């Protein structure tokens, strides 16, 4: 395995882990275990931040991966990828807002937004893992330049 494959494997595992923690955290609050809910959701947020740091550093220093599958599927793949990226950005904004509401003790609003955040994060994780499977397992792709090389040559 090269660095091109190791980074995405680890970062994708962090998205999956984060989504699993959100599911566990949701279950815990349904069971009225507030403290455990808080700790589990903070762990989920840390996993999401670690994913984001890995993803951005890979984009800067290693580079992204091009579509390597059949040309006939490329457009569909690109639409799917954009959907995943937009969803991830929405989930990040919702996630931060959900945490802020919790720390401000606005629990009624937190509860409403928390449900939307959790579902958005589940779909983000599922689409993220799908992108990983398409790019690295089903059709190993080509590599693009790291952003740092594109800028500094
Ligand atoms: C991004 C992280 C978080 C998410 C996605 C999240 C999600 C949720 C969800 C979905 C519920 C409603 C459960 C239901 O009724 O079906 C909820 C309730 C609750 N959350 Fe969170 N939560 C997060 C972080 C936190 C944190 C950090 C705290 C503590 C400071 C917290 C405290 C609570 C409390 C006390 C409730 C119960 C509110 C009530 O029943 O009125 N949550 N959360």
TrEMBL record:
The keyword Disulfide bond does not apply. InterPro entries: DUF420. It comes from the Bacteria. The keyword RNA-binding does not apply. The chain crosses the membrane at residues 6-29, 41-61, 81-103, 115-139. Keywords: Membrane, Transmembrane, Transmembrane helix. Coiled coil: none annotated. This is DUF420 domain-containing protein.
């Amino acid at each position: 395995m090269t660095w091109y494959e190791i980074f995405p494997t680890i970062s994708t595992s962090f998205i999956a882990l984060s989504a699993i923690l959100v599911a566990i955290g949701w279950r815990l609050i349904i069971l009225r275990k507030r403290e455990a809910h808080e700790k589990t959701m903070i762990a989920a947020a840390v996993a999401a931040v670690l994913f984001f740091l890995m993803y951005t550093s890979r984009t800067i220093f290693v580079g992204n991966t091009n579509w390597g599958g059949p040309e006939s599927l490329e457009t569909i793949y690109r639409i799917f990828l954009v959907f995943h990226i937009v969803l991830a950005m929405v989930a990040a904004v919702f996630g931060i807002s959900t945490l802020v509401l919790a720390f401000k003790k606005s629990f009624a609003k937190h509860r409403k937004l928390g449900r939307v955040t959790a579902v958005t994060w589940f779909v983000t994780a599922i689409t993220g893992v799908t992108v990983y499977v398409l790019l690295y397992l089903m059709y190993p792709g080509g590599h693009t330049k790291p952003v740092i090389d594109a800028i500094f040559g």
